[in-house]
Inverse folding.
């Protein structure tokens, strides 16, 4: 599956347009990560626990979007964007969307 954040796939021609595909996941903070994040806020530095949490969430949401595109018969997704939103105290949704197409 070709995935791009631009409107076309360079060197390829779009031959079919299938429409919007999405993927999402909702993740909650982890108590242990919160404790370590609190310490890092005092001394500074990367919050590696949260970085890992976001990487996992992006991967899962992307996999869900790809699966939806495959079911439609697409071999590429263009105009891909990520979005996040707060769902509840300590929980956030990571949402990815794009346009499923077939390219040759």
């Amino acid at each position: 599956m070709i995935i791009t954040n631009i409107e076309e796939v360079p060197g390829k021609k779009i031959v079919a347009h299938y429409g919007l595909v999405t993927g999402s996941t909702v993740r909650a903070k982890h108590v242990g990560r919160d404790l370590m994040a609190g310490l890092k806020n005092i001394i500074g530095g990367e919050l590696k626990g949260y970085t890992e949490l976001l990487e996992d969430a992006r991967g899962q949401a992307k996999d869900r979007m790809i699966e939806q595109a495959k079911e439609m018969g697409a071999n590429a997704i263009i105009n891909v964007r990520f979005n996040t939103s707060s769902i509840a105290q300590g929980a956030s949704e990571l949402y990815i969307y794009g346009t499923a197409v077939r390219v040759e």
Remarks:
- The radius of gyration is 17 Å.
- Residues 2-103 form a domain with the Translation Initiation Factor IF3 fold (CATH 3.30.110.70).
